[in-house]
Amino acid sequence: MTGLRYVYAVCRPFTAPLQRQLTGVAGAPPRQLVHHGLIAVFSEVPAEDFAEEPLRAHLEDLDWLTATARAHQGVVDALTVVTTPLPLRLGTVFHDDSGVRTMIEARERVFLRTLDRLEGRVEWGVKVYAEDSPDPGTPAEGEKSAHPASGRDYLRRRSTRARAHETRWQQAEEYAGRLHAALCAHAEDSRLHNPQNAALSGASGRNVLNAAYLVPRSRSEEFVELVDRTKDESGDDVPGMRVELTGPWAAYSFVEEERT
User: Fold this and answer.
1) Which of 125, 137, 43 is nearest to 92 (CA)?
2) Which residue, 59, 63, 122, 53, is CA-closest to 87?
3) Bigger pLDDT: 260 or 188?
């Protein structure tokens, strides 16, 4: 091999085959490097794109970054089907096999400890969105033709709608809290992430819960059913809630602390 080594993840040896036509970053098929009883899954990538300087420049190119992230995620997703991978950061590149082996040796204890903790487990993501209510200054339904009789009347209406607006967000946060508590009771671990920025995510509504849950793979179906059941039971009194479930993923949210 003459290219650089782009490493997706580290895992224990596995026997189940990956998808035959699976390709990764730069269209290269994933390969395996075995060292000290661990496997680094990597692709050979060209130095003109993945050496330090060109890689830094590419990371400023949104289209390139999006395509690379999708290819990276595709390999990690394929690994998640057959084993428990520890995903490495996007753009983890080494000059040669020796560099990959050195990385494994330097982090071997952390890798083994984390694999022991995450073996047979996957990550599920749950997001809750509350649809935006009308602006407090916008006439409510049935009031479109009713003009305020005075400035005081206008301020009264605006104050009433502002209070209703605030009450709605409070109810949404309470709903998200109940859902999170119910899911935590059936997960081995959880992480609360910062709410997503609507301008960046493109999702409608305010993100009031952005959480990840560590669940045994064997209990994933039960967890999915719990999400469906709990969101229906808890959301009856809080209209406008939208719950999004994603996964199963490699346990990204639960390996970060092990990297340091």
Assistant:
1) 43
2) 122
3) 188
